[in-house]
């Protein structure tokens, strides 16, 4: 990997770390982070596939109360770097996907450190606010956000320092049973992540669409564009039927006319 590519990867990692808090441009999402790393390293398509697999895992991750979800940003960036350093071979994708889970859990430790430091920064900002020093408040706000970026950028630098030959040698030295086990485990984790999302949104109204999509996905003659077009068509049909139900539907009074809104209201 060239020096310019390494610098660009670190920049992507820095942005991913900040976006884990800002949530504005979604750089921390696996699909976006892996795609950008693939773009700057010349392995776009394999990294897009890796990002898609990791995104399926992260679909079920969410912060609930004081429980913080695993760090998707660190998992995405570190897995993509390891994948690229190994040569972006298809056989390494399962290993990179499986490695993402412990990396995401390890990222929680770094998150805890940065957020603990941020508490001290908040107290400093309170003192500056009492003085009416708005410039200092802005400066410390930027410092706090940059710490979130460094939380991902520094591990990325550490991984980039490791020579690519050593990464390939380490992966090649893995026994076949371990490599195959990690590949199978990575595939199972992807399915579990999607199952968690289905479990959250499952109801009588969306199950038929899931069944239709599952059947269509099994038809090998249909491309992703064709399946996407069918999904868009079903969405328009659903919205049209929903609007007709909201207009009364010949005197019907079964709900508010907004099925998804009714589900949210139930919660």
TrEMBL record:
PROSITE patterns documented for this protein: PTS_EIIC_TYPE_4 (PS51106)
Localization in the cell: Cell membrane
Pfam entry (one): EII-Sor
Gene Ontology CC: one annotated term: plasma membrane
A biological process term (GO) from this entry: phosphoenolpyruvate-dependent sugar phosphotransferase system
Domain of life: Bacteria
Membrane topology: Multi-pass membrane protein
Transmembrane domains' residue ranges: 30-52, 64-84, 96-122, 142-162, 182-202, 209-239
InterPro entries on file: GatZ_KbaZ_carbometab (IPR050303), PTS_IIC_man (IPR004700)
Keywords: Cell membrane, Membrane, Phosphotransferase system, Sugar transport, Transmembrane, Transmembrane helix, Transport
Main location: membrane
N-terminal signal peptide: none
Statement: the UniProt record of this protein carries the keyword Zinc-finger: no
NCBIfam families xref list: PRK15065.1
Protein name according to UniProt: PTS family mannose fructose sorbose porter component IIC
Native source organism of the sequence: Limosilactobacillus ingluviei DSM 15946
């Amino acid at each position: 990997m060239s020096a310019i590519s390494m610098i660009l990867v670190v920049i992507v990692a820095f942005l991913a770390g900040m976006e884990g808090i800002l949530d504005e441009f979604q750089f921390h999402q696996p699909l976006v982070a892996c795609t950008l790393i693939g773009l700057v390293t010349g392995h776009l398509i394999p990294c897009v596939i890796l990002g898609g697999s990791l995104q399926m895992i992260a679909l079920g991750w969410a912060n609930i109360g004081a429980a913080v979800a695993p760090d998707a940003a660190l998992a995405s960036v570190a897995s993509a770097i390891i994948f690229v350093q190994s040569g972006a071979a298809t056989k390494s994708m399962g290993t990179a996907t499986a490695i993402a889970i412990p990396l995401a859990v390890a990222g929680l430790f770094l998150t805890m450190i940065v957020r603990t430091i941020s508490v001290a920064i908040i107290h400093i900002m309170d003192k500056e606010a009492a003085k009416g020093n708005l410039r200092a408040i802005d400066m410390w706000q930027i410092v706090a956000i940059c710490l979130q970026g460094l939380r991902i950028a520094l591990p990325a630098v550490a991984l980039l320092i490791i020579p690519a030959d050593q990464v390939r040698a380490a992966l090649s030295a893995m026994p076949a049973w371990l490599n195959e086990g990690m590949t199978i485990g990575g595939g199972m984790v992807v399915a579990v992540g999607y199952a968690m999302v289905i479990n959250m949104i499952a109801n009588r109204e969306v199950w038929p669409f899931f069944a239709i999509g599952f059947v269509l996905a099994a038809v090998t003659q249909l491309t992703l564009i064709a399946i996407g077009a069918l999904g868009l068509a079903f969405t328009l049909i659903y919205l049209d039927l929903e609007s007709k139900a909201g207009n009364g539907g010949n005197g019907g009074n079964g709900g508010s006319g907004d099925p998804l809104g009714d589900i949210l209201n139930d919660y």
